[in-house]
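Long-time lurker. I teach an intro course on protein structure, and each term I like to show students one example going from raw sequence to a predicted 3D structure in token notation. This year I'd like something fresh instead of my usual example. Would anyone be willing to generate the tokens for the chain below so I can use it in lecture? Attribution to the forum is fine with me.
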Amino acid sequence: MIHKLSRKTFDRLREEHADLTSRGRIAAAEKIARAREHGDLKENGDYHAAKDEHGQMEARIRQLESIIENVEIVEISQDGTVGIGMIVSIVYDGDDDSMAESYLIGHIEEQSDATIMSPTSPLGSALLGAKTGDIVTYQAPNGKLKVKVLETRAQ
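-- Reply from a regular --
Happy to contribute to a lecture. Here you go:
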């Protein structure tokens, strides 16, 4: 699976990976060693918590490695076309513009004040390539819905 990320997110994930594989692993080992000093490991809550925390960190490291190894850096559109890394404001057909909703089209690892919408979701994929003023239709579980693109902007 190819992960399409903005350059900013890719750099942040690479930094997180470097931190976890260096400082994070050292801190986890020290925490386990300190907890081990508290005696019997069978009934040592601190030890089990430290081991669980270490396991979660290692899982995150593997997740980051998978993303970093299978990444496509996506450049954000400069012409206002909806694409990955863009924030799009939409309003559903029949609703007033004051009811607009904003979404960042992108990977779950993107960070934004806007709600993240996958570009592979029905609405996300329908919005790709749209511009301000366009009306797009997509298949929702309860039928076809129309939305109007009110605004697009880079994150």
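Some talking points for your students: Residues 3 and 71 are 5 Å apart (CA to CA). DSSP finds three helices and seven strands in the chain.
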